[in-house]
Structures are given as structure tokens and as C-alpha cells.
Design brief:
Layout lengths: L4 H5 L3 H11 L4 H8 L3 H10 L1 H20 L2 H14 L2 H14 L6
Helix pairs in contact: 2-3, 2-5, 3-4, 4-5, 5-6
Length: 107
């Protein structure tokens, strides 16, 4: 997996499934129906579970980079390099910019 292992391991199987479904564009109601929990449960995970939020954020960030760079290996390498060398605020800004501009430039 491409997530901080400790955060990922804290999640239940249903929470992991929810993250995968959210990353494919499913809304909370659809996710809840597919994995067999209430919509409120999915909303609670998204809004109040810090481990779920961190893993989901990484999953969505990797998806963003993957679509710009091409291939999961490249996406993971780029993500890890950015996270390693940029201060947290700058890292977040770069990721947000990637999402906003729908481009990725690495020099």
C-alpha cells in the first residue's frame, strides 16, 4: 500500500473499501450501499476519523499525481519526494495546485 502503514492498519476492511470507492468517484450514499453501512457512518469516517482522513487524502493525492505523471510507480515516487523535501504547508499547496490546474510539471 502507498499509505503511512500505521494509519492504514488502523482502518477496518470496510473503511479501506470505502476509501477505494471514494477514490473512484462514488459519493457517500453509494459507498454506504456497496459496503453495507449507513451513509452517516461514511460521513463520520470522512469528517471525524483522523486515520481515515489521512489515508483518504494520500489516496486522492496519489490519484491526482498518477493521472498527471502516468503510472502508479511514478506517482508514488513524486509524492514521496515532494513530501520529503517540502515543508508541510508548501507540500499541501503543491498538491492542491496539481488538483486545481490539472497539470504536473517536474523539472
Amino acid at each position: 500500500m502507498h499509505f503511512p502503514e500505521s494509519d492504514y492498519q488502523k482502518l477496518s476492511v470496510k473503511q479501506r473499501q470505502a476509501i477505494d470507492l471514494i477514490a473512484t468517484g462514488k459519493n457517500d450514499t453509494e459507498v454506504a450501499g456497496i459496503i453495507g453501512v449507513g451513509r452517516d457512518t461514511v460521513c463520520r469516517w470522512r469528517n471525524h476519523n483522523p486515520d481515515f482522513k489521512r489515508v483518504l487524502e494520500v489516496q486522492l493525492d496519489l490519484l491526482t499525481i498518477r493521472t498527471r505523471v502516468g503510472g502508479s510507480d511514478n506517482a508514488l515516487q513524486v509524492y514521496e519526494l515532494l513530501k520529503k523535501y517540502l515543508p508541510p504547508v508548501c507540500f499541501r499547496m503543491v498538491i492542491d495546485w496539481l488538483k486545481l490546474e490539472n497539470v504536473f510539471v517536474l523539472k
